[in-house]
């Protein structure tokens, strides 16, 4: 895992030198995507996750996430976004700040027909062994005409926090997704399915659709089914605004 330690140091330096770090990485429904915010574009996201089933007779609180993300590299073929989130887990405001960053190249940047590539990290918390999930990942994605875009990758995180319900280490897994603009109906309609491996609370199968109400405003409506059955499904509504 030496490559991940080196990457963590580089990302930390980039965020420090950037001065103000702006949120959740650009995502599909649940997992990161290879999309990266363009230089100087600021993205605001409001995500909510609403439990749809009760747990031992009680419904768990809604989780909300407010985030800002911005692109910080003025290059077309190599892009970098950095972000900061404020996460509220049902009124629990202890150590709510989380940071993220993503570096990558868009499709066709390296050579004609090249896939998009991205490496990044997210959920870097401010409290050791409490919110420092420290998830690092790598992704590759390719658009295949009318089939849509297919993405695949892998992630790893803090082995002390990413555990299964028995407390055993479960801190890595695959990342898979499909997404496509449903242009047959409208260029404003988008659909996606994604999957994150693991029984650690991050592992889930998610699917949903999005509608662009304006060129810079969109809303995602999705549903998350967690790999570990003791985690109840969530409905998610995500508002995205670009400035």
Kindly report the name of the CATH homologous superfamily: monomeric porin ompg
- The CATH architecture comes to Beta Barrel
User: What is the number of beta strands?
Assistant: 12
By CATH reckoning, the class would read Mainly Beta
* Number of discrete domains: 1
Question: How much helicity do the residues have?
Answer: under 10%
Mean pLDDT: 89
Q: Within the largest sheet, what's the order of strands?
A: 1-2-3-4-5-6-7-8-9-10-11-12
Largest sheet: 12 strands, antiparallel, barrel
Radius of gyration: 17 Å
In one word, what is the shape?
A: globular
Low-confidence stretches: 1-23
Strand content: over 45%
The assigned structural class equals mainly beta
User: How many distinct helices?
Assistant: 1
From the structure provided, what is the oligomeric state, counting identical versus distinct chains? Answer: single chain
CATH topology: Porin
How would you describe the overall organization of this protein?
The chain has one domain: Porin. 7% of the residues lie in helices and 48% in strands. The chain has one helix and twelve strands, in the order H-E-E-E-E-E-E-E-E-E-E-E-E. The chain has a twelve-stranded antiparallel β-barrel. A hairpin with a 7-residue loop joins strand 9 and strand 10. It is globular.
């Amino acid at each position: 895992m030496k490559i991940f330690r080196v990457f963590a140091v580089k990302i930390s330096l980039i965020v420090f030198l950037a001065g103000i770090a702006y949120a959740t990485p650009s995502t599909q429904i649940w997992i990161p995507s290879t999309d990266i915010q363009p230089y100087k574009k600021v993205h605001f996201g409001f995500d909510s996750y609403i439990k749809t089933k009760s747990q031992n007779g009680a419904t768990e609180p809604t989780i909300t996430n407010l985030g800002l993300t911005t692109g910080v590299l003025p290059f077309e073929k190599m892009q970098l976004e950095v972000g900061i989130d404020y996460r509220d887990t049902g009124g629990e405001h202890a150590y709510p700040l989380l940071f993220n960053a993503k570096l990558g190249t868009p499709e066709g940047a390296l050579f004609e027909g090249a896939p998009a590539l991205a490496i990044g990290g997210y959920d870097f918390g401010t409290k050791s062994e409490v919110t420092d999930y420290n998830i690092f990942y790598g992704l590759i994605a390719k658009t295949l005409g009318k089939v849509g875009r297919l993405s695949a990758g892998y992630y790893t995180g803090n082995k002390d926090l990413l555990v299964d319900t028995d407390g055993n280490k479960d801190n890595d897994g695959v990342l898979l997704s499909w997404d496509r603009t449903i242009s047959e109906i409208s260029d404003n309609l988008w659909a996606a399915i994604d999957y994150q491996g693991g029984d650690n609370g991050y592992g889930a199968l998610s699917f949903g659709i999005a509608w662009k109400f304006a060129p810079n405003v969109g809303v995602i409506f999705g549903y998350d089914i967690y790999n570990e059955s003791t985690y109840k499904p969530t409905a998610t509504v995500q508002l995205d605004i670009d400035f």
